Amino acid sequence: MTKTFLKAAVLGGTALALGLLSTAPAHAFTFTPDQNSVTITASDLGKSFTALFNGQVGKNPATPILGLSANAIFTFASASATEALFNVVLNNTSTGPITSSRVSVLGFNTTPNAVGVGPTNGSGNTRITNPGTTGFTQDSTGNIPNLGQREVCFSANDCAAGAGAGVTLGNSGNFSFALGLNGNNPFTLSDFFVRYQDVNGSTVVPPGGSAEGVGKVPTPALLPGLIALGASVLRKRKGEQMAEANAEV
Questions:
Q1: For residue 225, what pLDDT is reported?
Q2: Rounded Cα gap, residues 73 and 20, in angstroms
Q3: Run means of pLDDT, 10 residues per run, the chain, 249 residues
Q4: What sign does the dihedral 15-96-7-228 (CA atoms) show?
Q5: Distance of alpha carbon 103 from alpha carbon 235, whole angstroms
Q6: Domain ranges, residue 214
């Protein structure tokens, strides 16, 4: 994980992550060393993991966007022979220089492939079960600008746009979804992403423009380090701001 990604992912989210550590249940998920995926079994019912998202635009290489960040807390709520239910808390943790942003799409890939993604709903199919406060009503599959294909996307429209729904800067939203599994256990979620819209304050995105966020799913043991790094980044930025203010007096 690069320093740039870490700064974007945790900037502004230190207090929230600290709260997660003090309240989240014990973890037993299997995380990969590259922090790209998490494998889930029936024994993980009731437990949670967190995906941390940076902000970026373009590709080969992508350009990082300072201050643009989000996270999503996934709780494995229940399971049947054909589907798994998750509750999600989606947090827009963007900070300055970003002045506005909206997390409009959340998605990932699955192994084995999810069942019933798209217009097919009902028991055993992938679907939004409760839009909560995000306004997300659609599950879809498709191409994300600069990131490529993703198997599962949740939004109010499709994989590329959120049709005005989502979570704005400094706010949190919640929703629930069912993942069609056709009896597969364990299963893996990977390649997490978010889509940002209505981005303002960045020097690399036109006013009101869009961007992407690539997700990492660190093990619980790494979260304290991320929190410490986030606090250090915030202290450094505050010091720089104070120095600039004193220089102007």
A1: 55
A2: 9
A3: 42 36 54 96 95 96 97 96 96 97 98 94 95 97 95 96 93 98 92 98 96 94 54 44 45
A4: negative
A5: 26
A6: 3-248
pTM score of the predicted model: 0.81
Q: How many helices (H) and strands (E) does the chain have?
A: 3, 15
Q: How many domains, the chain?
A: 1
Count CB neighbours of 225 within 10 A.
12
What residues does 215 pair with on adjacent strands? 53
Copy the structure tokens of residue 10: 């945790």
Are β-strands 37-40 and 187-200 bridged in parallel, bridged antiparallel, or unpaired? antiparallel
Placement of tokens 């990131």 in the chain? 147
Distances 80 to 75, 130, 179, 183 between C-alpha atoms, Å? 15, 18, 10, 8
Residues listed for the chain: 249
Residue appearing with tokens 């994989």: 159
